[in-house]
Design brief:
Helix content is 73%, strand content 0%. With 369 residues, the chain is an all-alpha fold.
């Protein structure tokens, strides 16, 4: 059970890469237009970028499914792991901020500085904040679910999942934000909204883990049926984008929902969740141990933190995208996004490797061992 399966670790790498794709789509396609991707479109290239945007939460679903697959039976404490993740995130963000101050003239606002110095506290990384909450409450939540009889456990988890998804849909269809409680221009209110968002998503992570636990415990034959999982994996991925195409066609003719193309972009989306769980089941059937894959997987969260940093956006992404995207034909934009994703992923691997061997392994890992 504790032996690392490189097939699962490979999925984590894949998850981080497609999350990176979603973060690197341009928000301007010429010198004037700002693209929000919330609006239905007849432009096939803009629609392709909307599809790329959905890869972010699809990657989140895969990453959570990979983690929950092995943690859903555990009742041990993960507070040291949570604290280590907190310190790792802070140190990476501080390092990048220092590099920005020392080597560039890119101006940073007060909020940018606060985001960089206190990245978890001020909402720089919602996923990390939610994952820390997930780690802290996993033992308590798992004990609760494990003690419940089968029928009651199914009811509790089902109601939690359905209500959570309904809440997200209400937020996405009634506000101008995407699955977030931060809906004000007031910084203090937005910080409060960020914490609410982290708590909510942390709870949903726990629910996803419980779904996997119930399937592994009571429907083991489904989880181990390779043919079934391949069918579910392929069909759920296809249906996710078929539904997106259908919604776009409908939204073009219904003004009330025309600006809600990202309403279903959430990792609890049934199609995303089915895709992620079935993909993990398929990977788990092939148990291999490849040290290089395991090493890359250990860098996955570092890569996410480094590539989604405020400094990276201000000093690297914005000038680079402004130069290329403003002078590149629209039909090259999806390909350019993929090329940038590969480039920054490789750069993230190199930088994360340096961090791991200079700071993380010799210092932090020893402290939290």
């Amino acid at each position: 059970m504790n032996k690392r399966n490189s097939s699962i670790e490979l999925l984590k790498i894949f998850a981080i890469f497609i999350i990176l794709i979603s973060h690197l789509i341009p928000y301007y396609l010429d010198n004037i237009s700002i693209v929000t991707y919330n609006y239905a479109t007849t432009d096939p290239y803009v629609f392709t970028l909307i599809c790329f945007r959905y890869l972010g939460h699809l990657g989140n679903a895969i990453f959570i499914a990979c983690s929950a697959y092995f943690m859903c039976h555990s009742e041990k404490s993960y507070w040291k792991k949570a604290l280590l993740l907190l310190f790792e995130t802070e140190i990476i963000s501080w390092t990048l901020t220092i590099i920005n101050v020392c080597t560039t003239k890119v101006p940073l606002s007060t909020l940018d500085i606060l985001n960089s110095v206190f990245p978890i506290s001020f909402g720089q990384y919602w996923f990390i904040g939610s994952f820390i909450i997930y780690l802290l409450f996993t033992p308590l939540w798992n004990k609760l679910i494990h003690k419940l009889p089968k029928k009651k456990a199914i009811i509790v988890v089902s109601i939690s999942a359905v209500v959570s998804f309904i809440i997200v849909m209400i937020i996405n269809f009634t506000t101008n934000v995407n699955a977030s409680f931060a809906v004000s221009d007031n910084i203090a209110f937005n910080i409060f909204g960020y914490y609410m968002n982290c708590v909510f998503n942390g709870f949903v992570f726990l629910v996803v883990g419980s779904i996997i636990y119930l399937l592994k415990t009571y429907k083991k034959e489904w989880m181990e049926n390779t043919k079934l999982n391949v069918i579910v994996c392929v069909s759920s991925f296809i249906l996710l984008y078929v539904c997106l195409i259908a919604y776009n066609a409908i939204a073009l003719n219904v003004p009330a929902i025309n600006n809600r193309m990202l309403a279903f972009d959430y990792f609890l989306n049934p199609f995303m969740l089915l895709f992620a769980i079935s993909l993990v089941n398929i990977a788990n059937k092939k148990v291999i141990n490849v040290k290089f894959v395991n090493f890359l997987s250990s860098l996955s969260l570092f890569i996410y933190v480094m590539t989604e940093n405020t400094f990276m956006h201000k000093a690297v992404y914005d000038p680079l995208f402004s130069y290329f995207y403003n002078f590149t034909p629209i039909y090259f934009t999806p390909l350019l996004t993929l090329l940038f994703s590969v480039m920054f992923f490789v750069g993230g691997v190199i930088a994360s490797t340096a961090y791991k061997y200079i700071i993380d392994k010799p210092i932090l890992c020893r402290i939290f061992k």
